[in-house]
Specification:
The protein is an all-alpha fold. The protein contains 24 helices and no strands. The protein has a domain of 220 residues. Helix 12 packs parallel to helix 21 and helix 15 packs antiparallel against helix 16.
């Protein structure tokens, strides 16, 4: 039942895209609101506190308004696009899992010498690239692939996976936050990505440099301690490996290129383009490659296992959207902008520091970075605080990338903490605070020097 109710959100999104009938929109908004209310009893932990807190603040902002219910319903679908992306983009990962590419990668990586520096760089890049298509699923896949190496340091593994994943939030067209930013700021993804890709590349280099000492210690441990071989004994056939890797590269390129082509040459939005490609491309690819049975297996696993487990996140993002919509339509929004301008409006650098710190610091205390991004991108017009749309978009995405790295409220850090049986605050904040600080400083300098 959880799966069905969540998957109906996709139907709701398509209905809103295909019709302008106000009555239909109202019915969809009511369904989304009912989905939120019925999901609340099943949410636990930090997510529950954040969700209920945002819902409480939303209601407080609406007290005394005559159109209380209307505004609340209108805000229900604000973040529906983010939820739709969460629901559909994992489908793009099915061809990767179904096509035996991971098995080939595993064999290939097992033959590498245990050069810690090379392994770190390779897995950082693999995690980054896979995360664009597979999202959080890339963490599990690369954890498995790492078993082919002799690296045992949990901190080193966590750093590779965390930073390889979170840096995609700065530029990936497949993420809900990117879709939200480009749609709200009325800018093209390609224009924004032209600037943010540079910062993402720098962030990956910083990740490598920050962990040089850790890599040196792990290399010394490997050289001193004889560890049992974990390499696959399956022989590598050079031509087969090259063929499979070229095929994987084609798969990743096609899936991303199709989204950009659909958006560029049709009137469809970025989110709708992603949704259609995510639904159709994996089926076509798996049919052509003769692995449709594997597709069905992976699809059912996503629908019956992954989707129900993400209900808490869906609800939180929907409530965050309601709050941001109500906030924008309240008198508090105007006062908030006035305060920002009075206190920090004299300098774009100071304004950037304040907005970035709000996203990062609230992330550290457990608030998912996408919540503050939603509020800022919907409530604040960059022109009113002295920033250009491109600069503002890059600032928000860069700040979210940093916050994702050190936030205890993100899926990646919770997953790593559970996987390694370690304290969440240690995995999220203590292991990443130096990287986050350096990335924060570089972000500000990068925006001032390179972004218009």
């Amino acid at each position: 039942m959880k799966s069905i109710l969540s998957l109906l959100l996709i139907v709701s999104f398509f209905i809103l895209q295909l019709t302008n009938d106000p009555y239909v929109h109202f019915i969809v908004d009511v369904y989304i609101f009912l989905y939120v209310i019925t999901s609340l009893p099943y949410i636990k932990g930090t997510t529950a506190k954040i969700t209920i807190g945002l819902l409480g603040m939303t209601i407080l902002l609406l007290i005394g308004k005559k159109d209380f219910f209307t505004i609340l319903m209108e805000g229900a679908s604000t973040n529906l696009s983010i939820v739709c992306i969460f629901l559909l983009t994992p489908l793009l990962g099915i061809p990767v899992k179904a096509g035996d590419y991971l098995k080939t990668l595993d064999i290939l990586l097992s033959k590498l010498k245990n050069n810690v520096y090379l392994i770190y760089a390779i897995f950082l890049f693999l995690t980054h690239i896979f995360s664009v298509i597979l999202n959080i699923g890339s963490i599990i896949i690369n954890l498995h692939l790492m078993n082919s190496t002799k690296i045992q340091s949990k901190r080193l593994k966590a750093s590779i996976l965390n930073r390889g994943y979170t840096t995609t939030t700065i530029w990936s067209p497949y993420l809900g936050i990117m879709a939200l930013v480009v749609s709200q700021l009325k800018i093209d993804w390609s224009t924004l990505a032209f600037y943010t890709l540079g910062y993402a590349a720098i962030s990956l280099v910083v990740a490598f440099l920050v962990d040089l000492k850790l890599m040196k210690l792990e290399r010394e441990r490997i050289m001193v301690i004889k560890t049992p071989e974990t390499c696959s004994e399956e022989p590598i056939k050079g031509i087969h490996v090259v063929y499979k890797m070229l095929e994987l590269f084609l798969l990743l390129s096609l899936s991303m290129g199709l989204v950009l082509l659909v958006e560029k040459y049709t009137s469809l939005s970025m989110v709708l383009s992603i949704s259609l490609v995510a639904i159709l491309f994996p089926i076509v690819w798996c049919t052509v490659r003769g692995c449709l049975v594997n597709y069905k297996k992976e699809f059912l696993a996503h629908a019956t296992k992954t989707v129900p487990n993400m209900q808490s996140e869906f609800t939180m993002f929907l409530v965050a959207g309601m709050f941001s919509y109500v906030f924008v339509n309240s008198t508090v929004s105007g006062k908030f902008i006035d305060v920002l301008n009075v206190l920090f409006g004299s300098s774009s650098l100071v304004m950037s520091i304040v907005l970035a710190l709000i996203i990062i610091l609230t992330g550290i205390i457990g608030l998912h970075p996408a919540v503050m991004l939603t509020i800022f991108v919907t409530a604040l017009k960059p022109e009113l605080i002295g920033l250009t749309p491109i600069y503002y978009g890059a600032l928000l995405l860069g700040s979210v990338g940093i916050a994702n790295t050190i936030s205890s409220g993100t899926a990646v850090n919770n997953l790593l903490a559970n996987e390694f049986k370690l304290n969440l605050f240690t995995v999220s904040y203590r292991w990443n605070r130096l990287y986050a600080l350096i990335s924060f400083i570089i972000l500000l300098l990068y925006l001032q020097w390179f972004v218009i």
